[in-house]
Amino acid sequence: MQAEQMWKISTGKGVKVALIDSGVSADTPSLKGQVLADEVPEPVAYRATDDATGHGTTMAELIAGTGAGGGLQGLAPGAKIVPYRIELEEMKGEAEELEKTPDTTAAIRAAADTDAQIISMSFGAEGPSSKEESAIEYAASKGKLLIAAVGNGGSDKGRIGYPAAYPYVIGVSAVDESGTVSEFASSGNYVDLVAPGEGFPGWCDGNLRSYCDDDQGTSAAAAIASASAALIWSARPDWSVNQVTRSLIDTASRTWPKDEPSKYAGYGLVRPRIVLEDPDYNAGPANVDPLEQDNGGDLLANSASSPSPSPSPSTASQAPEKGSNGGTSAAGSVAESPDDSNILWIALGSAAAAVVLGGVGVAVMRARRAR
User: CATH code at 282?
Assistant: First the structure.
């Protein structure tokens, strides 16, 4: 992805990413000054900067870490993180404590009412939930870019979790350093993009004392996709969510036709550099959803044409489910450079990556996703 080359054009400055996860510590060297905890509205602000597992802090560093103090340097170090702490399966505590922790629906709706342009969700669960889906539609109607990890159910019939399987959410799967789709990654017609998701260090636990090696998961891939969008939106602040989404899809690396998305890799591997380096790139109309067919409707077409929140109320969609399968929680991961521990390692080159699943060839990848 040639991060250092991209940073000459954009670092994500001016873009806020609402990160819904296990909480985000604002005190790690890499995140000092990067976390806007005071912008989390009540009552969902409860312990937003108290990371219960280390997962949320890892995702935040992968997106916007500065690399200070030997910590992780994210792909969009100029962006800011607005943290939301939700109850996850890995969290332990007293029932009263967990009861105070907001659920995903409350967090999504709260983030939708702020000026954060991107909502990054590296978690997943069995579903669907009508309340959660309504919150997703509300956020989409506000012009938010919704990105979620598809899950790590590759060994369990590939079932994808929610919220990634909802309409209006960009579902992100993982690839390894060679561009091969990870064997652990879930698959289905709700995969929209892939990003690096293997071989990263991440915080070992909520104590945040040290990193553990060789983390992997679609969580990290979703974080990198969110950071990619932040780089683009920072460079093109007048673009709508539709135009940012279209740019991610148009410039993704793939070896199959764009109109035949793969159930393993969607529209391909994210490459924000292609957008940043082309001042003449045409992102298309601001009010047309590039994923209208996948989403089953045009809710995003009714959202504001600017990245700031729209004052208009949400528009309920009658679109069919984006996916019919439940899912599994996505594990977290972060990235490093083999030469410099402070630089994000995502060097996949400028040529189209050959995206495969295990030993299955590209011929299978070219097949249209099952609907």
Answer: 3.40.50.200
SS3 of residue 192 by DSSP: strand
Domain count, the chain: 1
The answer to whether the CB of 143 falls within 8 A of the CB of 311 is no
Is 371 part of any domain?
Answer: no
The 10 Å CB-count burial string (b at 16+, else e) for 133-150 is bbbbbbbbbbbbbbbbbb
Give the other-Cβ count within 10 Å of 32's Cβ: 14
Q: Which domain holds residue 350?
A: 3-365
Give the model confidence (pLDDT) of 213-238 as tens digits: 878 899 999 999 999 999 999 999 99
Predicted TM-score (pTM) of the model is 0.82
Q: How many CB atoms lie within 10 A of CB 306?
A: 15
Q: Which of 52, 75, 70, 19 is nearest to 234 (CA)?
A: 75
Bridge partners of 171, per DSSP, are 148, 191
pLDDT band at residue 158 using 50, 70 and 90 as cut-offs: low
**What Cα–Cα distance (Å) separates residue 173 from each residue in 71, 180, 256, 366?**
25, 11, 17, 16
Q: Is residue 270 within 8 Å of 224, Cβ to Cβ?
A: yes
